[in-house]
Automatic annotation (TrEMBL):
The lineage of its organism: Bacteria, Pseudomonadati, Bacteroidota, Cytophagia, Cytophagales. SUPFAM superfamilies: Nucleotide-diphospho-sugar transferases (SSF53448). This is Glycosyltransferase family 2 protein. The keyword Flavoprotein does not apply. InterPro entries: Glyco_trans_2-like (IPR001173), Glycosyltransferase_2 (IPR050256), Nucleotide-diphossugar_trans (IPR029044). One of its GO terms (molecular function) is glycosyltransferase activity. It is a multi-pass membrane protein. The chain crosses the membrane at residues 233-258, 270-291. It comes from Hymenobacter bucti. It is found in: Membrane.
Length: 312
């Protein structure tokens, strides 16, 4: 095997001991269609079950499987970043570890890149095998993100992708702490192509590990990092409020001139609550920006590595 393999595949996993055998088997079979010169890097993101033990058992059978164990759970985007920094391949793929992204699509992505026609091939989801509530929220997010981010390649996509070394080096040069990888991948440009596929249900039939809370946090990172929508919400709400209260002021003056009864306490109370709610909304949005600026200035590492099992 060459010092730098032809292909690296980065797969973050968290508490996936029941899926490890199927995951590794399908990945190895898919990669064997491309080359024998590859490394499969599984990033154990602080699993609490026997995921790490299962990965190490597979590694004893095939040393092309590398296991990067993080010191604790740092989150999906950080785990991907750790694996990408460790990858040595000329081509590097990212794939979720729950088998919702089919590894059988990797040969197709590689074929699009190997003749230097494209630098990045990313999976574009045409359908989702998920509950209707999650689908509605995800579609709403992608619609908003597409409209306000001006990143065409980030529409209805996830992390599933393959990059050549030139694009990956550019990708890794982005060091922000609040990371939304599909947005960063689209931001760097280069020649990108989508590969259509239907996102599958989890292989074991359980619910996705990304809870609604984590999905919401990731959506906020995406919107605050790549869109001016939150600031525009403040601006437009303030403009609407000014127009409403300008009209209200004119009405009060007019009512006194013609003798119409002025606003009562209920109207005054509603007005105060309305203004207070708008102010709290603005403070919350500004607080999100301040927190993200603070986090960037802290400059803490995105992750810490417990151990990297990569020796031949």
């Amino acid at each position: 095997m060459s010092v730098s393999p032809l292909l690296s595949v980065v797969v973050p996993v968290f508490d996936e001991e029941q899926l490890i055998d199927t995951l590794i088997s399908r990945c190895l079979a898919a990669l064997a269609e491309i080359t024998d010169d590859f490394e499969l890097i599984c990033v154990d993101d602080g699993s609490r079950d026997q995921t790490l033990a299962a990965l190490l058992a597979w590694r004893r059978r095939d040393p092309r499987l590398k296991v990067l164990a993080l010191s604790r759970n740092f989150g999906h985007q950080a785990a991907y970043t750790a694996g990408l920094h460790a990858a040595r391949g000329q081509y590097v793929a990212m794939m979720d570890g729950d088998l919702q992204d089919p590894p059988e699509l990797l040969p197709r992505m590689y074929e699009l890149l190997r003749h230097d026609a494209y630098d990045i091939a990313y999976g574009q989801r045409t359908d989702r095998a998920e509950d209707w509530g999650r689908q509605v929220l995800i579609k709403a997010f992608h619609g908003i993100f597409r409209s306000f981010s001006q990143l065409a390649e980030a529409d209805n996509v996830g992390n599933f992708s393959m990059l050549n070394r030139r694009a990956l080096d550019a990708f890794l040069s982005l060091h922000e702490k609040n990371r939304y990888l599909p947005g960063l991948r689209s931001f760097i440009g280069y020649r990108q192509v989508g590969v259509a596929y239907a996102r599958q249900a989890r292989h074991d039939g359980t619910l996705p590990k990304m809870s609604y809370k984590r999905l919401f946090a990731l959506a906020l990172d995406a919107l605050f990092s790549f869109s001016d929508l939150p600031i525009k919400v403040c601006l437009y709400s303030g403009m609407v409020g000014m127009l409403v209260f300008l009209g209200a002021g004119i009405y009060v003056i007019f009512s006194k001139i013609v003798g119409i009864a002025p606003f009562g306490w209920s109207s005054l109370g509603l007005s105060i609550y309305f203004v207070g709610s708008i102010q709290l909304l603005f403070l919350g949005i500004l607080g999100e920006y301040v927190f993200r600026i603070y986090r960037e200035n802290q400059n803490r590492p995105l992750y810490f590595v417990q151990q990297y099992y990569n020796e031949e």
